[in-house]
Amino acid sequence: MALSMQFVRELVRTRNFSDFTFKVPIGEDHELHKVILAATSPVLGRFLLEHDKEADLFELFVDSSAEQIKHADDFTKLALCAGMSDVFAFCYLGDYKNSHRDGSSDFDVRVMSHLLTHDLAHRFQIGGLVELTSCHFKKAFLWYCANSTSEDVKVALQECSAPNFVKDSGLTGHALNLLHDTALAAFANQVGAYKTNGRFREALELMEAVPLATAELYSRRSIQAADAEGSQEGDEEEDEYVEVEGDEDREEVLQEDGTARSGTQ
Question: Does 109 fall in a domain?
Fold first, then answer.
């Protein structure tokens, strides 16, 4: 929701620049407006009804992930705070920009930060932000694979497909599905690019390094090939006999060479 000029002028006139504060253990506190947050997120709206002037930011996560956050390292907490900054910025501006991280060459900063914000957008039911973060994440992932060393790409894809990562990431189902589909697409693109450029050794090394992705990719291709073959056989059976319009006693039988042989019943 973008702020109207009338609302901004009212803020300046009343000098009431915030009516709620999220306290942050690491970094700066967020001084915000309840009406803005509630208008964008029904989840935040319900939370704010139960709190008067302030709350700890991590109180938003009083569910199964709360214990993980409590014992998380500082880097994880900083990443979560940065993701919430993106959420709050969207509530005010109706836009999503991650330019301060898009210049990084670090996979977690440049790529995975979008996935974290995507997960937060789902948690707080902010539809517009869900779509934007999904798009940014896919683009960032594919860009990283196209512009990084073979070793860095291999490490990134291994990380995303590791069972421990899925278990310990704290991400919800929507974000994990997006990660799975995007990583598999990036893996397929990378293997294809290596083969196209004659870099077969690198293609094999990547496939060996990420066996789960390799198995799933080729399983999908086998299913698609089988479906295509079945469809083609069905078309051939339908075309085997073609009636000649206007003469019910005659038919044309397609021969193996594709020509038609007429016959009388």
Answer: no
Sheet of strand 241-243, all strands in order from the earlier edge strand to the far edge:
241-243, 250-254, 260-264
User: Which residues constitute the domain of residue 37?
Assistant: 1-72
* Structure confidence by residue, pLDDT tens digits, 79-117: 889 999 999 999 988 889 876 778 888 999 999 999 999
Residue 47 in any domain: the answer is yes
Residue 226 one-letter amino acid: A
Nearest CA among 6, 58, 50 for reference residue 30: 58
Bridge partners, 251 (sequence order): 243, 263
Q: Is residue 139 part of a domain?
A: no
Q: What is the C-alpha to C-alpha distance for residues 204 and 214, in angstroms, rounded to an integer?
A: 10
Are 40 and 130 contacting, i.e. CB atoms less than 8 angstroms apart? no
- 248 burial via Cβ count (<10 Å: 0-12, 13-18, 19+): exposed
pTM: 0.76
What is the total count of domains within the chain?
1
Residue 50 in any domain: the answer is yes
> How many degrees, rounded to 5, is the angle at CA 142 between CA 137 and CA 147?
125
